[in-house]
Each structure stands twice: as structure tokens, then as C-alpha cells.
Amino acid sequence: MAPKVLISDKLSEAAVNTFKDRGIDVDFQSNLGKDKEALLAAIGHYDGLAIRSTTKVTEKVIAAADRLRVIGRAGIGVDNVDIANATERGIIVMNTPFGNAITTAEHALAMMFSVARQIPAADASTQAGKWEKSRFMGTEVTGKTLGLVGCGNIGSIVADRALGLRMKVIAFDPFLTPERAKALGVEKVELEQLLPRADFITLHTPLTDKTRNIIDADALSKMKRGAFLINCARGGLADETAVRAALDSGTLGGAAFDVFVDEPTKDNVLFGGLNFVSTPHLGASTKEAQENVALQVAEQMCDYLLNGAVTNALNMPSISADEAPKLTPYVKLAEQLGSFAGQLTETAIEGIRLEYAGVVAEMNTNALTAAALTGLLTPLLQTVNMVSAPSLAKNRGIEVEEIKRAQKGAYETYIRLTVLTERQERSVAGTVFADGKPRIIQVKGINMEAELGPHMLYITNEDKPGFIGHLGTELGNHEVNIATFNLGRMTAGGDAICLVEIDEPVSREVMDRLAAVSHVKQVKSLAF
Ligand SMILES: NC(=O)C1=CN([C@@H]2O[C@H](COP(=O)(O)OP(=O)(O)OC[C@H]3O[C@@H](n4cnc5c(N)ncnc54)[C@H](O)[C@@H]3O)[C@@H](O)[C@H]2O)C=CC1
Ligand SMILES: O=C(O)CCC(=O)C(=O)O
């Protein structure tokens, strides 16, 4: 029986034709995604679901999707898909990371001109017969400074076009290497430097714990008076109430938002603000982009449903059926090592070195390196997987070196990952025990044996008496339950590392208390 696909959002007809041409049954119900009950009733009949942003693929939808094997997002953001649940159910989630980037960058620039020249208000006034020539004094963009917050796919296209407009472009993106910034023609700066320098600020990051409200009242107060703010990335990057207050006070000369905290937004605090321009999440809405993403998602879904080939999957390593059982624990180890190193690294990564020793050196190390890069890049990028991670790393100028060697030392086999930044090299190594579970065996040259849990504390300290007791007391006083506790030290009395698995993440206040424990040098909370 031919696989059956449901398209539940407004996708270009190009997708329907592709499915049909490749022999897949397709139902195109472009408004079904808006009707939760109807979607729940229908989803059980399909092997594939193709969506944009309207359909919310919740835990409930996934639970009702008995046959579903693949969810294809025609676009970039997958905030509307419960990926964890889909993964648990063995459903692949794929997206099209590049197909609408140019169009979205163009929308950000259109929004920039709209606020610079107050076009929507001038249009409304003119069509109301007022001819208010002196009311709408604009701002020329030539020679002005554009501040990018996030310089990935879309941000770098905006930079390219803005340079063509003879703007000076500065960018805050912790992941941007100096070489990549130079190649793009942008000046890499910190957020603190960007805020007071930029005449226009445009946001192009995913919405993460680090970027939520990155433009808050404090950031707004540091901006140039009368500067303009553009958000065509995700609602929640800017605090809407604070932006409204800044428009009211004149701190901001204007703001243009395509995306909102709640969508669709019908009654927003920003509406009616002075020189506030809005569009209903139209960033990706051009015929060209919609054809690109629809064609791409349909091809990818057909490849998977018909041949088992996987492209741009967010939750699926590209590993053949034969090698999967042997490789899977090492994939997990490599991803954990990457994630560990990525969460400890705060400056731009110039390169990574992966050493494979013993039996692991004979395995598919391409897949393992891709898994390590996935772990490394996940805290910073919107969508990264084992398929996309190597090219994303390459695009960002991260050099990847692989070394394979015979077994050496106490462990039969191990992987060591070293991150190279402008300032330092930091390495972390691990192995897989007979129980099939990965263990960390060395951090920064210090030996230890630790299993990583979902919530970990990474503490560097001096190996001095009293430290463990004091640390345990602080954790106990704050009702933090310790699951596992692992120690390692360079030499007696020298540098030491402590990896503690805790049941719940700890608050900022507890982190500050732990940092104040005697002999502690640094405390970080890590999530896996
Ligand atoms: N309005 C619309 O219709 C559309 C919106 N988008 C959204 O645009 C955003 C950007 O998309 P892409 O450029 O494709 O993503 P990307 O993953 O290529 O780039 C994101 C960049 O943000 C940077 N970044 C991550 N954390 C950061 C932080 N804390 N501070 C500063 N920079 C940080 C990353 O290093 C990366 O370079 C996403 O949120 C995406 O969902 C994408 C397409 C259409
Ligand atoms: O499909 C759309 O219109 C939204 C696009 C978007 O936000 C994305 O691709 O991240």
C-alpha cells in the first residue's frame, strides 16, 4: 500500500505535485491545522504530516498518530512540534533550514525601511486624504549602523544586503568566529557594545533560554536614543511591554515586528505604539520561498517514506540499519562529549579535534563526529542534527580534525574531544562501559568516571579538606538532592573537578551560594 501524507497547512501546490509524482497518496487540507479536534480525528490515517507553523503537533496529536513516521516542516522553526515526544514515538521530524532564509532577510529589510520612512502611517494618512508632508520626516539608512543580534543563515544575508545599502554592520553572535565575521564584512561585537552603537537593531536568533527577552528594559535603556528595533525571528526575543514603553518615551524611534509572544496576536500591547509597524508572521511568505520549502519538504518526506533516506532530520542520526546497534551508544557518547564541551565554552570555537582510540576508531567515525558536532552546536543554533551539523560547522569556520589510533592506556576504547578557541584548548574524554552506557573518563586532563544525567553541576575547585562537606551542606540547605557525586584531581592539593548529578536544576541564588563555597573556582550548571 502506498504511504499516505496529510498536508494540514497552507503549503504551495508544488508539494502536492511532488507527492503525487512519486506515487504517494496525499490529502491537502490547508485549514485542518487550525482545527485541533479535526486534526486529532484524522491524524491516525497518515504515514506523513507536512506542515508550516499553524498546525501544532502536540503530545496529544502524536499520541493519536498511530501510523505516523515523519513530520515535515516546510520552513525553519519547529517550535510547533513536540520533538521530544515525536522522537520517543520514533517519528522523524525534518525541516528545510535554508529554503526561506533569503525571503525572511528581505522582510527584515522591508521592515527596516518601513520604520525608517514611516511608510505604513504615511500611507494611511495619504489615503485618508491628508497629505501630511511635514509630519513624516524619515531617517536615511546610508552610513548608519545596523546591529545584528544573531548572524546565522538569515542574519548573514541581512548583513550582505545592508552592506550593499552602504550601512556599517556590527553583529553580536557568540558563535561567530572572527574569520567568518571578516568574510561577511561585519564587525563582531559584544551585546553591550552593539546596543549604544546601532541606529537599527535587527534580531535573528532562535528563541532559547539565553535569547528570551534579550532586548528587555535594561537593553533598551542602553540603546541610542531614537534607534529602531526589528524582530522577524521569534516572538519573545524582545519584551513587548518594555518595547511599548520605549516607543512611548521616545527611547525607540520605531519598531517593526513580524513575530509576537502569542500568535495569532489580536490585541497586543505594542499595537498603536508610535511608529510601530507589524505584519502577521509574514517573514517566509513569498511565492518563491513557499515553493522552495514545499518542494524540499515533499522530496525529503518521499525519500524517507519510499527509501528510508534521511535529510535534515532533527532527531535522527543518519546511520544504516546494519551499523546502528553497535554505533548507537558511541553516538550518544560523542553527542554528550560535544554538549559537555559546548556548554563549557563561552567564546567562538575555532576548531575541534576528535581522537578515536581502540575499537571505536574502526567504526563510522563520520557519524560520531557529526554527533559530537550536534552536541556542540545545539546550545547555539536553531536547528542542528547529525546531517546538518558538519556543514553548519564548516560554514562557521570551525575546523574539524579526526585522529584514529590503536588502544592506549587503561581503557580499551575511548573518544577524546578537544575544543580550540581563541584563548584555550579544553578536552573531555569518554568511553562506553559493558552496560552500554557512556561515561566521562577525563575532563581537562583530570581523570574521573562519571555518568551524565539530565541536570549536572560542573565545579572546579582546589583539592582542599572541607570542600566536599561545605558543598554538601550548601546543597542540602537548599533542598537540592544529589543523585551521583564524582571527583577527580590533578595532584593532591592541586586543581580538582567535581561533577554532581542533581534531581532538579538549581536557581541562580543557589549557584551564587555554591560559587562562594571555600576552594571553589567555578560552578556551571549543565543540561543533557
Ligand atoms: N519570520 C519568519 O517567518 C521566519 C523566522 N525565522 C526565524 O529566524 C531565526 C533565525 O533563523 P536562521 O538564521 O535560519 O537560524 P540560524 O540557526 O542559522 O542562526 C541563528 C544564529 O543565532 C545565533 N545565536 C544563538 N544564540 C545566540 C545568542 N544568545 N545571542 C546571539 N546570537 C545567538 C547562532 O549562533 C546563529 O548564528 C529563527 O528564530 C527562525 O525560526 C526563520 C524563517 C522565517
Ligand atoms: O511558515 C511560515 O510562514 C513561518 C516560517 C517560520 O517562521 C520559520 O520557517 O521558522
UniProtKB/TrEMBL annotation:
Catalytic reaction(s) noted: (R)-2-hydroxyglutarate + NAD(+) = 2-oxoglutarate + NADH + H(+); (2R)-3-phosphoglycerate + NAD(+) = 3-phosphooxypyruvate + NADH + H(+)
Organism: Roseibium hamelinense
Pathway recorded for this protein: Amino-acid biosynthesis; L-serine biosynthesis; L-serine from 3-phospho-D-glycerate: step 1/3
Family, similarity comment: Belongs to the D-isomer specific 2-hydroxyacid dehydrogenase family.
Swiss-Prot/TrEMBL GO biological process terms: L-serine biosynthetic process
Enzyme Commission number(s) of this protein: 1.1.1.95
ACT domain segment(s): 456-528
Keywords tagged on the record: Amino-acid biosynthesis, NAD, Oxidoreductase, Serine biosynthesis
A GO molecular-function annotation: phosphoglycerate dehydrogenase activity
PANTHER family with a match to the protein in the record: FORMATE DEHYDROGENASE 1, HYDROXYPYRUVATE REDUCTASE
Protein name: D-3-phosphoglycerate dehydrogenase
